[in-house]
Write a structure and sequence with these properties.
heterodimer, A: 7 helices, 13 strands, 37% strand, Phosphatase_reg/MetRdx (chain A), TIP41-domain-containing protein (chain A)
Chain lengths: 272, 416
Amino acid sequence: MMPVDGRAGLNCVPQTAADAGSSITQQGFKITTRKLPILKAEPIEQMTAKLGIAPPEMIFGDNMVSIEHSSGWGVNFNTYDALDRVDKTGDSMLQVAHSREWQSTREKKHEGITEVVKPFDWSYSTDYKGSVQSKSPAFEASTKAIPLELLKRPDPILFFDEVMLYEDEMADNGITLYSCKIRVMPQRLLLLCRFFMRLDNVLLRIRDTRIYVEFGTGEVIREYVAKEEQYEVVRQKLASRGQDVPAQLRDPNNLNDLLLIVDKSLESLVVR
Amino acid sequence: MSDLDKAISELRACKIIPEPQVREICHKARELLIEEANVVQVDAPVTICGDIHGQFHDLMELFRVGGDIPDTNYLFMGDFVDRGFYSLESFLLLLCLKVRYPDRITLIRGNHESRQITTVYGFYDECLRKYGSANVWRYCCDVFDYLALGAIVLGTSSTLEPSFMDHSQAIEPVDNDVEIEIMNSRNEVTARFPRSRRRLFESEALNSSQPGTPSKIGPSGTGATSDAGGSLQSGGGAVLCVHGGLSPLIDSVDKIRLLDRKQEVPHEGAMCDLLWSDPDEIDGWGLSPRGAGFLFGSDIVKRFNHLNDLSLIARAHQLVMEGFKEMFDSSIVTVWSAPNYCYRCGNVAAILELGEDTSQGGVISRSNGDAGRSLQLLPSNGIPRSGPGRRYRVFDAAPQDPRGMPAKKPVADYFL
């Protein structure tokens, strides 16, 4: 039977917050961003079947950022691939702060209901570093860091965009999201793709992937840094600084230096 | 013009009202709400709305699309506050309207109408920012504790009346066979679904011979109703409205009536479940992967509806891109009324209109406990119970006031 929902009322495709695509080409590198509304019911069903897990509540399945070189090399960040790297088994599943309290009272009253439905990592933690479009040249381990000094120069920003891939409110137990931010200057670009998760009273995570491109030399650097810290530790650090804790906890930029590095990698390649 | 009417017109203009007046309105609202049962009885016609989340301009759009109070009778299923930038104005306006027209608007509690949740998700910060102290937040939280947990809509029609705004066009008679109609914000019909999709679950529910199939006859939504009862008549049956969903501790609407609701939303128990649980494509009950919270399947909803003589459960709580989503052979519907949620999702919103059953000269075909009374009205061919005629009005986000809104184009910054 056909499920009934608003998809029949098709005259109402919203245009807000939608941006079907914008791009810039700089010295052989084409940078494209695409921003569209969250997915409708049918594509969500398709994605659920393909992924094998329930996608996040706000799923910007059509959104993406890509960097393509005229040689055929390219890297892009898309929602499906980011979610495909989420643990689908439930082995690394987090539990909300009041879970133990909740379950202890529940076990006594409802012995029948103990099965967790479709367990998976519902924090949607991903170690996604982007989808590379061709095998060569391949990223190789490197020791050369992203040249921050060059990025701190006030060069004109020719292109700037922010693209959300997914977001989930964790049933009001915090926030988890994956967002991308890109700026293109005349000689270089920086793309920051960030996974941020705050499970209230439990844990904070930031996983940053940075792609740096120097147009003149064709050098591409990819840096991945994963950080974590217990919620309470961060809360105390913020409180001792005398800051407004709830507001600070909403902005990953304020938390970056309070979390401990748990994983890190540096790679590079040169495209010609 | 009374102070209350002045406050309403200020709030309609998205302006805040003085703190002493907030205090007074909250006090009056509490006096009204304290008299309401845990499950408020609402007579059709009624327009059912889902989450608002402080999106004030979209609430104004909702009233434009659905009609203004008191012309339209409204039922809001909670989550008035948090996330959006105008939780205060949105909630205080709804509250003022409640005080002004208590019989034309029903407010039930969502999981965001809680001290703990509002401190994390924006309402508390908004009160501090707009009033310089947490007093207004405290007044509002005291009101939250008195909000009803659910509502039951009686006297619905199984057919659709012409839309109330149809007089602008040539009145097109709505076929009696139409069960679902979808309209856009310009009052144009975009889809109709005939009642041919007879629901199969009645026979399933009956055949599975669940223990506790009622044998008494009583009002819909009480443990005393009968399978011989109520909605086999021309009416559309009773509709239960809750914010989240069902609870394994609750097998009858009467059990909701027995809860002590006047408290902060607890972390566990029936009251928590009603505000937090979600339907899912599973059998029976399940635990959410999050470690707290229940999921319930199709069989649970169908059994609950059968035992309580309900034709439909309407709930909110979950974002749906299309504004509404019927599940489990139309035994439950999610209604979502915050378009372009969080100002970035690009989703549409919907409200659900249920018409009034006037087929018996205005005598509502409500089971009232008279044994056998409804039996006379049984159709001889034994057509199974079917849901009320449902009109969904789907609408987009209002053009936003530029003040305080996130810029559509992100502002370039030298991030590292």
